[in-house]
Amino acid sequence: MKKEMNYSILPEHMQEGMKRYVEYGVNPGDFLYHIICNDFVHALVHADQINMARIVDYAKFLYFEAPSGCWGSVEKVNNWRKARKEEALKAEELKGGE
Fold first, then answer.
1. Separation between Cα atoms, residue 43 and residue 31, nearest integer Å
2. Domain-by-domain residue ranges, the chain?
3. What CA–CA distance (Å, rounded) separates 1 from 50?
4. Which of 18, 36, 45, 59 lies 20 to 30 Å from 5 when distance is taken between CA atoms?
5. How confident is the model at residue 95 (pLDDT cuts 50, 70, 90)?
6. What is the dihedral of CA 48, 52, 57, 63, to 10 degrees?
7. Bigger pLDDT: 52 or 96?
8. Where are the beta strands (DSSP E) in 7-46?
9. How far apart are CA 46 and CA 35, in angstroms?
10. Could you tell me if 43 and 55 are in contact, meaning their C-beta atoms sit under 8 angstroms apart?
11. Percent of the chain, pLDDT > 90?
């Protein structure tokens, strides 16, 4: 059974962006991109005041909630996005065949 992720760990205005990335591979924007690539130094350059104050919550979310394959390096992020897009295409193909 697939574990449901607790996005509420993250600031409210960032939850949908993270969810779209994790579930569908949608580009999350500069701040979240650096977060999921495990580049917290560069993430801080793009952080608003809320995200700056809650940066540790992103580390907690990734470590305890997110699939390990979706974060940690540029390569892992690129692979995750590609895989999510391929899944969406396959789902559309199956849906079209009904």
1. 5
2. 8-96
3. 34
4. 45
5. confident
6. 100
7. 52
8. none
9. 10
10. yes
11. 82
pLDDT tens, position by position, 51-69: 999 999 999 999 999 999 9
Among all chains, which residue has been given the structure tokens 């396959």? 90
Interatomic CA distance for residues 61 and 57, integer angstroms: 6
Residues 6+ apart with CB under 8 A from 51: 11, 14, 31, 43, 58
| pLDDT band with cut points at 50, 70 and 90 for residue 26 | very high
- State which amino acid sits at residue 20: R
- Token pair of 16 as six digits: 């949908």
Token pair of 17, please? 């962006």
CA-derived radius of gyration, the chain: 14
